[in-house]
């Protein structure tokens, strides 16, 4: 057994507290940015199967996504080669992001063509570009978000006052959801600084479990698998966001495309959508295989698989869907307006579901709605 002297324990505790103390400073830096602020997350490329067969109008399609279970369609479809099957000899280049704003920047800069992304960054990008940069072309996932707390410090939803609750980033989808929930419960918050009756800390998902374990936060409103990782650290699910939505459904991940790429390469976009529809059907029919594919892809990206208990919990909390659940997108935009992070947006035209509905029709399935948007 290794014994640590009191002096060394004190020094270690000081270092931990110093690291935690930096978090409010990081949140303050993010607060200077707008809704859907820029991410400092690193980007890494994921391996893709070799292309073969007929090449479409583009020699390569560049795809962005997150290494999150809420992006299961991208993870599984890439790992199983279901996108490549539809794309033939058109190659896939992938880029992995830690947050939506950085992925939107890559899309706007022409660094990627198609991306899996949350609703809040998509809304922000559409509004900021005056409807010129992207279109939402499909849904991908619903649910998969929890408020997880330290049960020794937070005993009920009425016990949040004075607590420190983390979200992944200022203005991201979970940040907006937490701010909206706190407002609905009568808590007063400054959305930009995160200060108020509840302190909202903006922390990268990869860091959140460590900070939670060290006591730097009392809970977090986060997507999967971070929520299940916090439970594995001793946390308790205090609220599943599904409970706040009609029928327990709300969009957590959409597929977006650059308008320029959509106009120039509609056949490639349609092929990616066929791959997405095929992947979602495969996930629903093969849940055990889907979990294995997710972990294989996550291991390829990070070098470390999720523990079985964490993966099982995270996977069960997410529903893959082709339907973009468009009515919930408008509601999420309204939440951002109420939080003071966004001016009332005009989302008319944000969807182009024609290519998806063409794919669904070929499968004998009904069309999905854009809810008038």
Automatic annotation (TrEMBL):
<keyword id="KW-0997">Cell inner membrane</keyword>
<keyword id="KW-0732">Signal</keyword>
<dbReference type="GO" id="GO:0042626">
    <property type="term" value="F:ATPase-coupled transmembrane transporter activity"/>
</dbReference>
<dbReference type="InterPro" id="IPR010067">
    <property type="entry name" value="ABC_SsuA_sub-bd"/>
</dbReference>
<protein>
    <submittedName>
        <fullName>Aliphatic sulfonate ABC transporter substrate-binding protein</fullName>
    </submittedName>
</protein>
<comment type="similarity">
    <text>Belongs to the bacterial solute-binding protein SsuA/TauA family.</text>
</comment>
<dbReference type="Pfam" id="PF13379">
    <property type="entry name" value="NMT1_2"/>
</dbReference>
<dbReference type="InterPro" id="IPR044527">
    <property type="entry name" value="NrtA/CpmA_ABC-bd_dom"/>
</dbReference>
<keyword id="KW-0472">Membrane</keyword>
<feature type="signal peptide">
    <location>
        <begin position="1"/>
        <end position="31"/>
    </location>
</feature>
<dbReference type="GO" id="GO:0005886">
    <property type="term" value="C:plasma membrane"/>
</dbReference>
<dbReference type="GO" id="GO:0042597">
    <property type="term" value="C:periplasmic space"/>
</dbReference>
<keyword id="KW-0813">Transport</keyword>
<keyword id="KW-1003">Cell membrane</keyword>
């Amino acid at each position: 057994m290794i014994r640590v002297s009191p002096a060394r324990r004190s020094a270690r505790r000081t270092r931990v507290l110093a690291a935690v103390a930096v978090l409010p400073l990081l949140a303050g830096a993010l607060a200077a940015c707008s809704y859907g602020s820029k991410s400092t997350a690193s980007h890494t490329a994921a391996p893709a199967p070799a292309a073969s067969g007929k090449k479409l109008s583009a020699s390569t399609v560049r795809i962005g996504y997150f290494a999150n279970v809420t992006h299961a369609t991208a993870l599984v479809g890439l790992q199983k080669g279901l996108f490549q099957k539809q794309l033939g000899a058109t190659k896939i280049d992938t880029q992995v992001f830690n947050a939506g704003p950085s992925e939107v920047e890559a899309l706007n800069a022409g660094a990627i063509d198609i991306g899996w992304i949350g609703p809040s960054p998509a809304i922000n990008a559409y509004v900021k570009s005056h409807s010129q940069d992207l279109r939402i072309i499909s849904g991908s996932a619903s649910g998969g978000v929890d408020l997880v707390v330290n049960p020794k410090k937070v005993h009920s939803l009425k016990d949040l006052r004075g607590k420190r609750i983390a979200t992944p980033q200022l203005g991201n989808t979970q940040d907006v959801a937490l701010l909206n929930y706190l407002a609905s419960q009568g808590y007063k918050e400054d959305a930009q600084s995160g200060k108020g009756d509840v302190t909202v800390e903006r922390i990268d998902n990869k860091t959140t479990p460590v900070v939670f374990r060290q006591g730097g936060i009392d809970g977090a409103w986060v997507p999967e698998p971070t929520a299940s990782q916090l439970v594995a650290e001793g946390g308790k699910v205090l609220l599943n966001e599904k409970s706040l939505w009609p029928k327990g459904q709300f969009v957590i991940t959409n597929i977006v495309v650059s308008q320029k790429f959509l106009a120039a390469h509609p056949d490639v976009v349609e092929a990616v959508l066929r791959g997405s529809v095929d992947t979602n059907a495969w996930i629903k029919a093969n849940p055990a295989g889907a979990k294995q594919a997710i972990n294989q892809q996550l291991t390829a990206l990070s070098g470390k698989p999720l523990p079985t208990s964490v993966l099982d919990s995270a996977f069960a909390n997410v529903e893959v869907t082709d339907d973009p659940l468009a009515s919930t997108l408008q509601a999420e935009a309204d939440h951002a307006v109420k939080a003071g992070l966004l001016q009332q947006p005009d989302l008319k035209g944000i969807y182009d579901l024609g290519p998806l509905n063409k794919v669904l029709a070929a499968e004998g399935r009904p069309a999905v709605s854009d809810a008038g948007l």
